[in-house]
Amino acid sequence: MTDAHPVTGLDDVVHQRVRLGILTITHEARRVEFGYLRTQLQLTAGNLSQHLGVLETAGLVEIEKGYEGKRGRTWITLTPAGNAALAEEIGRLKLLIARVEEGFTA
Amino acid sequence: MTDAHPVTGLDDVVHQRVRLGILTITHEARRVEFGYLRTQLQLTAGNLSQHLGVLETAGLVEIEKGYEGKRGRTWITLTPAGNAALAEEIGRLKLLIARVEEGFTA
Questions:
Q1: What is the CATH number of domain B10-105?
Q2: What positions does the domain Winged helix DNA-binding occupy (chains A, B) (predicted)?
Q3: What whole-number distance in Å separates Cα of residue B9 and Cα of residue B93?
Q4: Which sequence spans correspond to the domains of chain A?
């Protein structure tokens, strides 16, 4: 359909609130530890793991397990596809915002 | 928590892709017909009804049933709370975009 609204172009994998948070924070930090994401996003470990799984399956993040001293750590980085997907989402949000703001001033 | 990320301030009722679409289109058009929303958002009637129900329960839209000739029609408008919630979402998205874009140019 050619008359669909720009919002139909948003991808739920990326747009969903928690996943958008994961992508944004990981993008900012380049590489983040699981516990840091949990604190920043105020999530349970299970909930964060589930959303990371969705992003990993979609090829948007890479998850590495390792150690810091004796403590197990999980590190998350964005893949090039993850960076591209975030940039795409931001581009679409800007179009959406422009349309809404036209409405507020009209 | 004071160190939470701005994304935690996003409200799922408003941020969810389809509902953000409903609010944006209704805001643009001031008053929209159910069938128009369906076409624009490429949804089934059941799916659209479900999301409209969430927005109505939250007090963000008003739903009126009436007739156009002999055909039943359902009209949707934003409430003042719906307008405010959309403006709030847009404000938060702009903060998020600013943070992401700093990262892309850094």
A1: 1.10.10.10
A2: 18-96
A3: 10
A4: 9-100
